[in-house]
Amino acid sequence: MTRRGSATVVAAILLGAVALAGVAWANDKPRIAVLEFKNKADNQWWFHGGASAAQDVFVTELVKGGKFRVIDREQLAALMQEKNMSLAGDIDPASAIEAGKLLGCQYFLTGAVTEFGNTDVGGHGFGVSAGKRKFVAAMNARIIDTTTGEIVWADEASAEESSVKVSVFGVGGGVDDSRMFDKVMKPVIQQLTASIKAADL
Known about the structure:
Elements: H1 3-28, E1 31-34, E2 38-39, H2 50-65, E3 69-71, H3 73-82, H4 93-103, E4 107-125, E5 128-145, E6 151-168, E7 171-172, H5 180-198
Parallel strand pairs: 1-3, 1-4, 2-4
Antiparallel strand pairs: 4-5, 5-6, 6-7
C-alpha cells in the first residue's frame, strides 16, 4: 500500500472514531421531559392553548441549549397514554420516581405560571383618549431528578412590556398588542432555560 493510501485509511479510521465519540457523548446526555405548566395566575387570563405553547417553547429552548436529550411534547403525551399515566405540574417525588422509570427519563421540568395578563392605565381629554397597556408574565420552574425525587434546580423569572394606544373622537391609531405571549412569556422561558444551562446538572 502506498503512503497516500495508508494516510487515507488512517484518516478514515480517525474520522470514524470521532463520529463514534460524538454519538457516545450525545447518548450520555441526560433525558428530560417538560411537563405542562400549571396556571396559578390569580385574576389574570391564561389564553387557550397557552400551557401547551409554553411547553413547546421550553422544549425548543432546551434542545437549542444542547444539554439534554429532550422528549417531544407529542411523544411524551403518547408515552403517558401508553402507560396510562397523567402527570401535572405539582407532581410529588414518589410519582416522579415511578414515572421516570416508566418513561425512561432522568429529569422532569415542571412549574407554574404565576402571572400572565395586562393592566390598562388611561387618560382622557376633549375628544382624545390615551391608554397605556402593560403586559406582564412570571413563571417559576424546577427540575426533579427521577432517580431520587429531589428538586435539583429551581428558579423564577418575569418580564413586562408596555404599549401606548391613542384615539381621537373614537378613531384610534396606536398599538393594541395581541402578541402577548411572544412579548412577555417567551422571554421568561428563555431566562429560565439560560439558568438551566448554567446549572450543574
